[in-house]
Design a protein that fits this description.
This protein is mostly beta strands and 434 residues long. The protein has five helices and 30 strands. The longest helix has 13 residues.
């Protein structure tokens, strides 16, 4: 399960209802002027929740902050972690899989702040809670995925469903003709859902290439950000003498090169009553493979009206995956990017912490530390002056962060130190800020 990373360089873009760009400034050392005053804040841990053997992903507070929806999945070691385990460990997992092919598939759970589960949905990812806390929109995992990696192939056919927690019934809202749908977002009109259109974009790895909207009352699907394709530069290059050795090598690997590259939709999120998307447009060069060499990054408004909010210029393909944004207070959107050149003033200060998340009111931020090593603790800061309010104990890993909409609570997914893989367990920690 891919863990969340938030990135190095940060700016804020102020938006109006018309979504015209009117301001930009860089953050210095994670401190920004979003609040005034030096009132004391106290931090209290309200809940520690876990499920045996399980990873936890996609925590999200309900609108009133009284519930949390998340995804749990039985941990199946992979990669370097799996190399140090005996074959008998995996023999037991395979035996469980034969008995129940979906025992390690993702399960959506709605819990209250006492840690009691009030709703369960099998099987799905990226849930969103309705305002009344009675239904959950999610991407249904149609194929058994136990023991498999989360790749485009294993997610093909995933549709968007809404589960009624009182009736314990699910209904399908949108089905993909190809690829898969993901990341449902409940729109403020109260009767429609936006979601991403996904396919393989980087070898076997999936990604978003468009956004659609559907009326939950049975209306037709509507494309609000259509898939766009840019043709690859032909091989061999038109002027072989000007090609680099790398390009020549890539041109020789015909089976790995792409014929075209889709425009990528990196993130979609509500900012007030507007749906924003961070979009990366490919700029191919000779010998490109799964991804184009460079991309132009733009922040767009896609609902209720289409408009370009902010253009960041061009960056290389590695910077594409290191880019995100977060809506914050006073109609501002903070853009996070790693190694993106040409759009910030050369002397602008950089955000030193690549893993951080601000509270919706802009008063606080949580930084995952240390910066240049594997994360092992998290710290809550006051945004106005960078004052440290709370630091966790040392952990084996910090994987996900979420704030309640009223900025009074935050949740952290982390793993305690000293827990063996054979007894794997991630914890959901919930804290209140007063």
């Amino acid at each position: 399960m891919t863990k969340r990373t938030i990135l190095k360089v940060a700016v804020t873009v102020t938006i109006r209802t018309s979504l015209t760009y009117i301001g930009l400034f860089a953050l210095l050392g994670m401190a920004s002027g979003f609040s005034s005053g030096q009132a004391r804040s106290s931090v209290t841990r309200e809940l520690v929740w876990s499920f045996p053997e399980s990873e936890i992903a996609s925590p999200q507070f309900s609108a009133d902050g009284n519930f949390i929806v998340l995804v749990s999945r039985i941990h199946w070691p992979d990669g370097d972690e799996a190399e140090g385990l005996p074959e008998s460990f995996f023999d037991k997992l395979e035996a469980r899989k034969r008995q129940d092919p979906r025992f390690a598939d993702p399960i959506i759970r709605l819990i209250n702040l006492k840690g009691s589960q009030v709703c369960e949905v099998r099987y799905g990812t990226n849930p969103a809670i309705a305002e009344d806390n009675k239904s959950i929109a999610f991407s249904r995992q149609r194929k058994p995925i136990t023991g498999m990696r989360t790749l485009a192939e294993t997610q093909v056919g995933n549709d968007i469903q809404v589960f009624n927690c009182e009736k314990k019934e699910a209904r399908t809202i949108a089905e993909p003709p190809i690829g898969y749908f993901d990341n449902p977002i409940l729109l403020p009109d109260g009767h429609s859902i936006a979601y991403t259109v996904n396919e393989a974009v980087n070898g076997a790895m999936g990604g978003s290439v468009g956004i659609e909207r559907v009326d939950t009352n049975g209306g037709q699907k509507e494309s609000i950000l259509a898939k766009e394709i840019t043709p690859a530069v032909p091989c061999p290059p038109a002027e072989p003498g000007k090609a680099t050795s790398f390009q020549i090598t890539m041109c020789s690997q015909e089976t790995k090169r792409s014929l075209s590259f889709p425009t990528l939709t990196l993130k979609v999120e509500m900012a007030g009553d507007q749906l924003l998307a961070l979009q990366a447009e490919p700029i191919p060069s000779v010998g490109d493979m799964y991804l184009a060499s460079h991309y132009a990054l733009n922040l767009l408004a896609v609902f209720p009206k289409m408009a370009r909010v902010f253009s960041m210029g061009q960056g290389d393909m590695h910077a594409v995956w290191d880019s995100s944004f977060q809506p914050i207070a006073e109609s501002k959107v903070m853009i996070f990017a790693g190694h993106w050149k040409g759009w910030l003033p050369e002397m602008a200060p950089r955000n030193a912490n690549r893993r951080s998340i601000y509270s919706p009111n802009g008063m606080y931020y949580i930084a995952v530390e240390p910066v240049k090593e594997e994360p092992s603790q998290f710290t809550l800061y006051r945004a106005a002056d960078g004052h440290r309010l709370f630091t966790s104990s040392r952990l084996a890993g910090v994987y996900d962060l979420a704030w309640s909409k009223d900025s009074r609570r935050f949740a952290v997914v982390a793993q305690s130190k000293g827990v063996p893989v054979s007894a794997y367990r991630e914890n959901l920690y919930v804290y209140s800020v007063r």
